[in-house]
Input
Amino acid sequence: MFHDIPRAMIDRMRQLEQADAADRDDGTERMKRLRQIPPDTGKFIALLAAGAPEGKFIEIGTSAGYSTMWLALACRAAGRKLTTFELLDEKVALARETFSQAGVEDVVELVHGDAREHLAEISDVAFCFLDAEKEIYADCYEAVIPNLVPGGLLIADNAINHAPTLQPMIDRALADSRVDAMVVPIGKGELVCRKR
Ligand SMILES: C[S@@+](CC[C@H](N)C(=O)[O-])C[C@H]1O[C@@H](n2cnc3c(N)ncnc32)[C@H](O)[C@@H]1O
Output
């Protein structure tokens, strides 16, 4: 996956990494910032996705499609497709640009809208990456966990840097007998839940 990333995808990744870094320093307002995962988290979720069981891949919170590109590498390696959800018009436009430039439109479907309106109907989920507003994590968790296949994974970003907001949901996952879960100290902290 990581040894033969297409040139066009590497170029788009670099472009978005630079834009994201600039956002964090130049006073860009929060909802306009890309708020991307760092590259190590991208590799981590791609590795886990590539080994996920049979079933659907979903992502909640696309932004400009940076994390989606990492997941697209896993889709290529494992012969899967991914559906990613994004609410904001401006981010959807950037993500469409990303998917076209990176050449991943054949493995990525972008849904423009509130993921919460769709999650309950998505059965047989093998892999879910959750990276949206922290206030909706608990609702997304409760919607996705029942629909995970055995061995299916839900990974939630920001489990460490947003711990004060996310702690009730993290505690719920750690005590939830439907899953085995732990927080992995990579990037901003990844809550990894595997359905039993
Ligand atoms: C932290 S950013 C995602 C970053 C992206 N995963 C990456 O690493 O490249 C969160 C994104 O979730 C989107 N979002 C927030 N609530 C959402 C919802 N209910 N449904 C779909 N997208 C949502 C926001 O508009 C924002 O673009």
